[in-house]
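Changelog-adjacent note: as of this version, every example in the card shows the full chain rather than a window. The one below runs 308 residues end to end.
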Amino acid sequence: MKIILTGSLGNISKPLTEILVAQGHDVTLISSDPKKQSAIAALGATPAIGSIKDLQFLKITFKDADAVYTMIPLSFTEPDIGEYLHQVARNYAEALKEAGTKRIVLLSGWSADLVKAENLEYLFDGLEASVTILRPAAFYTNFYQSMDLIKGKGLIGKFLTLRYSGLWALLTGKTGLLMGNYGGDDRIVFVSPKDIADAAAEELTLMPMGNTVRYVGSEEMTCNEAARIIGASIGKPWLKWVLLSDKEMLRGLKMAKLPEKLAESLVEMQAAMHSGKALENFKRSNPKMGKVKLADFAREFASVYKQK
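Full-length structure tokens:
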């Protein structure tokens, strides 16, 4: 199959590329960074360098594709996050329609349908194609963004690495950290990017009738249980996950000078996780859980932590 992937050499797209190339597929990987051409080629894929905001580039790249995997990276600089997300989604939909691609896998999020700015899935409804929406839970790799605070204070929050006008946002006395409005004893499903890549690879080679939704997770537990697993791996078994209120979260995002609509969307997204609605939807779908447990990831985390 000729398969086009977006996401450059990210935590999902890189292992996804490796899986599909090993299966013998003709893989093209889109990246906006020309410096990544050689690394993409080294994986056995064809690099396509361009922007997903460039409709003509997408039309050319998607031509004759049997299947396409699409994702939209979150931007911390767009003044209107909703318009940015919809613009890219519309570009995808128009380019896929012109290309006549019959199999499409869209990376979404497990609370995306609960947040107005991120509800983009309807834009793919009019395509004459088999479309699967992937809704992964909270990424294990988010813990890397908490590393500085863990080192300094022994706390975990839902931290986002923020960059605005070339400066790191300083919100807790540590570089680029921000607590979130879910955590503590909230029950959350966590997921490994490797398990998401496995699910995406499987879906790209299937052809279900109509549009489908697939939730992806690796392990369910409370945020504090997750904190203890991460903490035990680095010699801090007392580690706690701090929970902020919605107001505190919004205030912190505004202090970081994030665009107002983005700040509101992030608060809304995490509030859906805190409320349990995202977990409820996840369980209703009765998905098969992935193979990578948090304890497995914790060993990788500990190795990076010790080197930092």
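Structural remarks: The first strand starts at residue 2 and ends at 5.
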